[in-house]
Write a structure and sequence with these properties.
It is built from seven helices and nine strands, in the order E-E-E-H-E-H-E-H-E-H-E-E-H-H-E-H. It has helices spanning 35-43, 58-62, 79-89, 109-119, 150-158, 164-168, 194-202; strands at residues 7-13, 29-30, 33-34, 49-54, 68-69, 94-99, 124-130, 136-146, 173-177. A seven-stranded mixed β-sheet has the order 5-4-1-6-8-7-9, with helices on both faces. It has a two-stranded antiparallel ribbon with strand order 2-3. Helix 3 (79-89) packs across helix 5 (150-158).
Length: 203
Amino acid sequence: MIDVSLITGVILAGGRGSRMGGADKGLQNFNGMPMALHTLMRLSPQVGEVMINANRNIAAYEAFGVPVWPDVLADYAGPLAGFLTALERCETPWLATVPCDTPLFPLDLVARLARAAQDGDAEIAMAAAREEDGRMHPQPVFCLMRTDLLESLVRFTQAGGRKVDAWTGRHQVAIVPFDRPEDDPRAFFNANTLAELHRLERS
């Protein structure tokens, strides 16, 4: 098993929040606590170190007590910009990625991704979950990846690539289904609007 100390986690909070009226998603309250802080508390026990990728309100994120790094790519280039930023800063062999707007992600997320990566000798392990259509879908921002993929991602983004699945598709990926009877069906629900966030709080 990949030891927790060999894994750094990054919370992806660098988006524009356009579907939330331009609000900084990570700083919106979920059950009385900023979503990114809720995410940090959920992720911290699963990894050895944590960092946050954010492009606004840096001081507010720094107040959570972990390193905060803005995108190394310009113009809010999406999740891959967060991946790249974290890979450049990561000092462990593995990096786990989670977004700031999915506050109920599994407490055993990283352990299950790590087991699949090791068992499948994979470069990337990616969660999959059942969505509203009843089918299992990959959740590309919930990944565990080898940090030696940095060079590959640099080349991909320098060539203009921005889609997560287009990059991960170049590598050995283990897809990890989160569909056990005890798995929370809301675990990978991301709150894109304030209304969705409030619904998730009440559920």
